[in-house]
Amino acid sequence: MSKKISTENIKELRLKTGAGMMDCKKALEAAEGQVDLAIENLRKKGLASADKKSSRIATEGLIESYIHAGSRIGVIVELNCETDFVARQPEFHNLARDIAMQLAACQLVDYVSIDDIPQNIILKERSIENEKEDISQKKEEIKKQIVEGRIQKRLKELSLMNQAFIKNPEISIEELVKQHIALLGENIRIRRFQRFILGEGLERKSDNFTQEVSKMIYNN
């Protein structure tokens, strides 16, 4: 006998996955009411359909801005979709907002994906890792493995798509985007972003009272 699926279960699954109500109901029925299994099945289904749509051209969308509390960090991000209809949907706007907030929180991120990282940056990171003292005495094969592992970790730190979503660390930004592709039925792409940090690149004036007093003494 199959377990009865409650409206609360369906709402919970929809809140966690962003999937449609009927999809959530079917997934729960197939999983005999087990929410975790239903989430896994929906994710597999969502990611599969998202992968099929990922090659389609996305030239519509919006530019979202986010200013962090205190007005010290600002982010502008361009999020693309296929049609103006999807660009107007609240789910799409919420996604853009979440991505902008993510970028404000993850200040080490400089690129949308690992594929966007220039080769010269990768070579520089490899050079830095190769010269670290803690692996200088390792055998060459082991050294290569350690360096490669560290490089991959570093590249993921620089890539937005590889970051854990700040509102739900169980999924990555890439998975978040793919969930919305499945939800909205169109290809969605983070095209570019720019982060602004107050005072970045400027020399900060140092107000050191002791130094000022010293100067006054010596000048007299």
UniProtKB/TrEMBL annotation:
Residues 56-200 form the Translation elongation factor EFTs/EF1B dimerisation domain. Residues 121-148 form a coiled coil. CDD domains: UBA_EF-Ts. GO terms for cellular component: mitochondrion. InterPro entries: EF-Ts_dimer_sf, Transl_elong_EFTs/EF1B, Transl_elong_EFTs/EF1B_dimer, Transl_elong_Ts_CS, UBA-like_sf. Its main location: cytoplasm. It comes from the Eukaryota. Keywords: Coiled coil, Cytoplasm, Elongation factor, Mitochondrion, Plastid, Protein biosynthesis. GO terms for molecular function: translation elongation factor activity. Pfam families: EF_TS (PF00889). It is found in: Cytoplasm; Mitochondrion. Associates with the EF-Tu.GDP complex and induces the exchange of GDP to GTP. It remains bound to the aminoacyl-tRNA.EF-Tu.GTP complex up to the GTP hydrolysis stage on the ribosome. Belongs to the EF-Ts family. This is Elongation factor Ts, mitochondrial. The lineage of its organism: Eukaryota, Rhodophyta, Florideophyceae, Rhodymeniophycidae, Ceramiales.
